[in-house]
Amino acid sequence: MSNASGGALGFLHKSRIVAEPGFNRWRVPPASIAIHLCIGSVYAWSVFNPPLTRALGVVAPAADDWSLSSVVWIFSVAIVFLGLAAAFAGKWLEEVGPRMVGVVAAFLWGGGFIIGSFGIAAHQLWLIYLGYGVLGGCGLGLGYVSPVSTLIRWFPDRRGMATGMAIMGFGGGAMIAAPVKGWLLGVFQKAPDFLGAQDAVATVVENGRVFAETAAGKVEVVVASAAQAASFGGDAGVYVVGTGNTGAAQTFMTLGIVYFIVMILASFQYRVPAEGWKPAGWEPKPVASGMVSQNNVHIDQALKTPQFWQMWVMLCFNVTAGIGVIGVAKTMMSEIFGSVMPLVVTAAFASTYVLMISVFNMVGRFFWASTSDYIGRKATYMCFFVLGTILYLSIPYFASAVATTPAMIYLIGFYAATMIIFSMYGGGFATIPAYLADMFGTMHVGGIHGRLLTAWSTAGVLGPLAITSLRQMSVTNAIQNLAAKVDPAAFAEKFGAPLTQLDQLVAAKTVTIAKLMEIAPDGTIDPTPSLYNTTMYCMAALLVVAFFANLLMKPVKEHHHHDEPELQAVPVE
């Protein structure tokens, strides 16, 4: 018994939470689902992108506001630490039990939000990275592994169903979180001080920043369009930087407290079965029944096989493609369709889009995993990569087409394509454990799966890095192309500075694609919908590589097999 079973925290140890005879095992799944719903809200991160990128300007980005690329990395860091914590927490979980791990996860996840709240209020980006990214990410990983391990022990007769419920919670967490986050932001937001219409306020541009003279002296301002000001109930015109509130800090604080309370209560519902416990009337079947492989491979030996690394590449690239889009989903929908179909693609529409991502992510986990039982794991991943490649290549088509001919059919096509992509993203997570069992047997599949989750961490970096870097490159090219077309005199009148200061004006966020389009020659096509085209081509290329990794998959060679016989019934603690 671990020393952790004594002391102040001894009541959390697994030796103190052994279920009494007659305990209803169905009390455990709701607690597991509650924890996964809390941590699954990470998939609704993109809801925070707009308020964080205009935390100072509020109605429009100010010069000192954080860029989208710097904010998206917070999500990346959280996913990295999720994967690392999940991969390395298994041994500790077995030692101390699920309640201890769940309580620590609650402190890390809830506390991460609270620290992030202070970071937003103080405009210190590193605090958000530390809180939400590092500490919150570790909370994600610990929260992810604790319910699954516990449910497997309680439901040896229905493992797929039991773990599926928890995984459903993780995949569907954003379904609840997205509208709740949007509602909280609306409750706490406050419009900045309004000085008047743009033509009624004297402004001056210095080093790319816009300033206005007021009775209190010169103040930095932003110029908001009617669409930007509408969400705050304001009018187009000049607003004072630093006088409003997006509501992000208060939303972080509220969520941190709520998640902490829910996860603590859920963790205290955990019980572990007594040693030797099994469901009444149930007898274990031979483990190898129906398996592709009749042999087992040791966890350390698995890393020496090409099959492990082929699956690592497959999971990594499938997740990279999906997670990069998830991180900027709301922003991408708004940028591709918002400028050309503003009456349809409103802020509420974009929020609903994030909600539907969660729905398809959740449903995909059941659909694709169930499908793999009939057509096989290899064939299922073939569907992911072939169909996924086609769908990623279709997105640039829809984006380019809607820019020239705004039509609902292109929005519908984009919506359908991305939803199928997100279902395969979730399906990849749900199907990979069974694929591992097919290849390496069941004896060490849990540990092998944990190590494979480092592919998730890697994808958490690659996906957002690719999508933000490629998008920024497209933005820079688009601004330069538009600037070359506009009249220099109209540019100087619009922005209060000559065209030669373009780089400074762009760096200060004074010049944007939308504002350049206001003075562009008639007939100029808005490049905004095409900002993600290059990204989608790269994502499709990744899936092609993953396709060949799966195509070349063969059974593990005999010399890797583990001779130790697997027990038919394993006592549970």
From TrEMBL:
Gene3D superfamilies: MFS general substrate transporter like domains. The keyword Transmembrane applies. The keyword Cytoplasm does not apply. The chain crosses the membrane at residues 68-89, 101-120, 126-145, 166-185, 248-268, 311-330, 336-360, 381-403, 409-436, 448-467, 534-553. It comes from the Bacteria. InterPro entries: MFS, MFS_trans_sf, Proton-linked_MCT. It holds the Pfam family MFS_1. Keywords: Membrane, Transmembrane, Transmembrane helix. This is MFS transporter. It comes from Thioclava marina. The lineage of its organism: Bacteria, Pseudomonadati, Pseudomonadota, Alphaproteobacteria, Rhodobacterales.
